[in-house]
Amino acid sequence: MLAVAEVCGLEFGRRHTGKALRRLKHVAAIADPEIEQAVQRSVITLWDDTSVRETLFDTVIGWCENPATTSVAYRAFSALAAKTDHDQITPTLLARGDQAGFTPSAADLATGWSVLLSPQGSKEAEQLVLATVHQWLDVALRQHQLQDDVLSLLRNAVNHPEEPGVISPRERLRHYLFTWLEASDGTDTTERNDIYLRLSKLFDGDFSRRLTGDDSAGGTDHVA
What we know:
single chain; mainly alpha; 2 domains; 11 helices
């Protein structure tokens, strides 16, 4: 099965993307770190073919929604979330316009981020998520036209009931948000603090509504 996952990231995957996607779906549920890494590499390779991006992304989100494939979903979505557009700054998943070819829905992005912000089994994985959160917050800071989109999808990614006894995705995201705030070089402290306060207020509002059982307005607060 490792060979099946690996070949999808080679010339076979580039030439026969449909077959490669079907094979990746077949091996995605196998809990093996080497296979998961091979699937991740194949996803990165296939993403370069803009004609299959929508199908590939739908496949990855399907993994995110399936408890049996969340491990490989984490690797695949984290790889896509970190990829940048032609400007080497904007995440490809946030790219807009004709050059993107495909624009993921906000709901699907939130689903992927929910998996990404779930507890990870290693410090290396935690650092990867931290770096990706910082990357997307940097985009929110520097590209105002994307700020509402970024804050909204991060907010929605952690707006769900918590699991007792573990650090919740919301608190994990709070930690990453705080480290991003503290990483300011002093030239953008005010702008970072504005984003920190806006997102924190959204977290608090969602949590308060869950505690009081008032879900009628849940998720309806404007980001701005």
